[in-house]
Amino acid sequence: MVEEKSNQLGDFIKGRLLFIENYCKENHLDYKKVANEIENETIRRAGSKEREEFLKTRLFGGLLLPTSILPNWLDKVFLEAMSFVLKGPNTPLFTTTSKISCIPFEAGRFNAKRQADTIFKILFQNRTPSDWLKHGFPALYRKCYGDEAGDKLQVIEHDPNHFEVITDNTNLDKASRIDCSTVIGYLYGSLEKLNARNIVITHDKCLAEMPVAKKLCSFNITFEI
Ligand SMILES: [Zn+2]
């Protein structure tokens, strides 16, 4: 079996499950029914019997801890399945700007706010938005995407209210435009949490799904404080 890349994704996945519950509440949807549909859709996308088993026991079998180390493919498959089920017909699956919302954007935004109050509180406490972009974001990005991606992450300060984040998704199992939408949402929710105003994040340069040697993605971030 090919070695699978894993990271400390437990709390991120937990956040996705809580997002689904919250989304159903807000939109008056039957949570049990929706959760069941997402479970089926996730398993349908698994790609192998082994992975199906893994999903059934680890993701849906109640063995999920915030510190759980989980494979990247699980995050990808689950995120795609939940976005597909929740989005409804005629709604986009991903976005390239914080001005246009979508399910994975909202899931990332939700998780950022939740983790700012819980597991990553220390990365948010007494931080300005620019501090957080330079120091907090790289720390939690490394937890979610691993050391290789963490080493290659660039945060460029164009001026105090204008940043550019460049991720390198080469060799990353979960690289997709849907995943990039959660990054936009996560950055947006974090900056909201840090009381930044007029936040605009655009992601026009996305190579996540392109057949190129270096899968670079650039996120342009502006805000006021
Ligand atoms: Zn991208």
Structural features, described:
- The protein is an alpha+beta fold and 225 residues long.
- It is built from eight helices and six strands, in the order βαααβααααββαββ.
- The strands form two sheets. Strands 3-4-6-5 form a four-stranded antiparallel beta sheet.
- The radius of gyration is 17 Å and the shape is globular.
- The mean pLDDT is 93.
List the SSEs and their pairings.
Layout: E1 6-7, H1 10-26, H2 31-44, H3 49-59, E2 70-71, H4 72-87, H5 103-117, H6 121-124, H7 129-152, E3 154-159, E4 162-168, H8 177-193, E5 197-206, E6 216-224
Antiparallel strand pairs: 1-2, 3-4, 4-6, 5-6
Helix pairs in contact: 1-5, 2-4, 5-8
Bound molecules: zinc ion.
Largest sheet: 4 strands, antiparallel
Which strand order spans the largest sheet, edge to edge or round the barrel? 3-4-6-5
CATH level 4 superfamily of the largest domain? H-NOX domain
CATH class of the largest domain: Alpha Beta
- The tally of structural domains comes to 2
Order of helices and strands: EHHHEHHHHEEHEE
The structure class reads: alpha+beta
Proportion of residues in β-strands: 15-25%
Number of helices: 8
Number of strands: 6
Descriptive key words:
225 residues; alpha+beta; H-NOX domain; 2 domains; four-stranded antiparallel β-sheet; two-stranded antiparallel sheet; 6 strands; 52% helix; globular; binds zinc ion
